[in-house]
Structure formats: structure tokens, C-alpha cells
Amino acid sequence: MHRELVEQKRWISETRFLHALNYCMVLPGPEAQQLVTYIGWLMHRTWGGIVAGALFVLPSLAVLIALSWIYMAFGNVPAIAGALYGVKPAVTAIVLHAAWRIGSRALKSPPLWAIAAAAFVAIYVFAVPFPAIVLAAGLIGALGGRIAPRQFATGGAHAALAAGHARAVIDDNTPSPEHARFRWSRLAAVVAISLLLWAGTLGALVAAFGAQGVLPQMAWFFTKAALVTFGGAYAVLPYVVQGAVGGFGWLTAPQMIDGLALGETTPGPLIMVVAFVGFVGGWTKQIFGPESLFVAGALAASVATWFTFLPSFLFILSGGPLVESTHGDLKFSAPLSGITAAVVGVILNLAVFFAVHVLWPAGLRGSFDYVSALIGIAAALALFRFKAGVIPLILACAAAGLLLTLAGSR
């Protein structure tokens, strides 16, 4: 998104992009989808946000419904396993590259570097919860903004121009559009409509299937998942595993691991693994009987997706005007700069987490996977040195993994 929207299309400036990203990072739920909703809303009012946010999710939902059906109907297919083998080291390189891209732009002073390093150590070594890291980074940023404001200021107003870019459609100094100004009447309307959509859908499911039905249970469960989890997909996964696997029995632990692998290698946010959970749960519980397993799975996947993402539209469309009124205000931007620095460390932790599990698939005491290491190094070179696109890279690595599997090299 940064490459497309900030660097190439120049729809939004670096500073405005990071300001919006910081806001989305402190919200519960999927920050990537929230970010595209915010930018769509800022550029094209409410319907722009709805269209951007919805189309960020719908292709992933369609792909995961199809892959989940293949997974449940045909079991383990060697060709799919081979493609996943090649994609996993590529994903590791992509996450590492993301940490570098954001860090090279956000870590502009020694205190921000220190926050990033501390966040990495906190989450990787001590397993500190992500919300605690965000809170601590925000407090440090707020304090630092008072003591050393220059160290916590975001990029200058002409940073993009200095880097050789044309002005953005929404540039650092572009006034907030009329629709982005706070109004109590608008806030009340957004909240009322969102609650009506949520309650209406949940009520329809309860009326059709009963309060203890699988679909109403999924609706309530994924609503809570969207509201109580911070830090993106990897923060919500333990909650989903605990409830979907241990509590409701919608799927097994091995199926959950397979779903995560599918989520990592399909377009869209990783949080879309909830669609896989819903599909398998609907299929397993045979909501419409044994002859309509696909329909049950597809409907359950849609319910899980709807109730996971609906709160995000509420947060963005209601909170966006407040965020727009604070860009450039150090009292608000300094804490968010601290949070962005911490997020760099958290993303680096994710890259290390992936690398360990990809390169030592049987654990650190097991054998080292040299083939995966070579694929990962090639992917990193393609990204860092040759500026390869993410989608062509994933397709190339999937093809490499498939060829190696067919050739019997792994």
C-alpha cells in the first residue's frame, strides 16, 4: 500500500499516510483494512471508505472459500503442499522487507531507534503482549514530545518533495476536506447505522437458527474477537484458537495450522484466516445437512468475515474526523511516532518468528532446511536489490516449491 499509494500514485503524502497508520495501529481489529478504509474515506467521503474497505476483503474471502472447499473436499494435495513450501520463505523475506521499508522512514532519531529495539526485545524475548507495548511506546512518545520535540516529530512538510516526488493529492499541507471535519450529528448517524447493521444481522441469524445455533455463535464470537484484540492477526489468533478449537470444536488444531498457512499465502490481510475457521466450522457442523456442506461452509465464512470487519468501518468512519484534526499537532503526533517505532520492532519480531519456523521446521534442535534458506535469500535479493513486486515474487517462489516437490528434491 505504501509503495502504491505514497510513492507511485501519490494519492497521499508520507506524513499523512503514517499518521493514519498510527491511528489504525492503536485500534482493535485488522489495521491494514482499517488503513485502506481511512484513505478511501479521506479521498472520497463515506462511500469511498466503504468501497475501499469492502474490496480489500471480498477477493480474499472468495479465494479462501474456494481453497477451503478444496482443502475439506480433497484433503492434502501434494501440489498445494509444494507450493506452500516455496511461499513460506518468501513470506519471511516480505515481512523483513516491510520492517526495513517502514523503519527507514519512521526511525528518524536515536530515541525512535531505541523504542523499536526495546519493542523487539520485549515481544520476542519476554513475550510482552502487544497492547502493553503500544501503550508504553505511546507514553514514551508523549513524554519525549515534551522533553525533546524535535526527536519525535514526524517528517517535514516538504519531505516528499525533497525526495524527488511530485506533490500528493492529499499532501502534508492539504487542508482536511469538508466531510472530514468533526460533527456530532455525523458521529451519531455513523454509530446508529453501524449498530443497526450489527444488531439486525445478528437478530436475523438468531431468528433463523436459534440463539445456540452455529452461525449466531460465530457472529457473537467474531464480534468479540474484533473488539478485544489489538495488534493484528497474530494477536487475534490465540483467542480464535482457544474459542474455535477448544471451546466450540469448529475445527481441530492441525486444521487451524493449515488455515494459517492458507491465510499467509493468499491475497489480503492475514486476519482473513477467520474465513477459513468459519468455513470449516460450517462444514464440520453440517448446518444444512450432509448434502449442502459447501453452502454451509461458504455462509459461515461470510458470517465470520462480516462480524470481524464491521467494527472496523465504525472505528474509521466515526473516528476519522478526530484523527484528521490532529495531524501536525505534536501533542498527538509524538505518541503516534513512538507507536510507529514500536511497530517496526514488532514486525521484525514477526520476520524472525517466520524464519525460525521455516528454516528449522522440526524445531531449533532439528535439521536446518537449506533449500528454504536458498529460496528465502533469493526472495530477499529480489525485494531489496531488484525491487520485485510482491505478487510476482510469491508466484515465482510457489512455482519453485512445486517444481522441487515434483522433482523429489524435498
Give structural attributes.
410 residues, mainly alpha, 17 helices, 0% strand, globular
Number of helices: 17
Residue share in helices?
over 70%
Largest sheet: none
* Helix and strand composition category: mainly alpha
Shape: globular
- The domain count comes to 1
Mean pLDDT: 86
Distance between the termini: 35 Å
Oligomer: single chain
Radius of gyration: 22 Å
- What is the number of E strands? 0
Low-confidence stretches: 155-163
The fraction of residues in strands falls at: under 5%
What's the SSE pattern?
A: HHHHHHHHHHHHHHHHH
Tell me briefly what this model is.
The protein has one domain.
In words, what does this structure look like?
This protein is mainly alpha-helical and 410 residues long. Helix content is 75%, strand content 0%. It contains 17 helices and no strands. It has helices spanning 2-8, 14-25, 31-74, 78-106, 110-124, 130-147, 149-152, 159-162, 184-209, 214-228, 233-247, 253-264, 273-285, 293-324, 330-359, 370-384, 390-407. Helix 3 (31-74) packs antiparallel against helix 14. The longest helix has 44 residues, at 31-74. The chain is globular. The model is unreliable at 155-163 (pLDDT under 50).
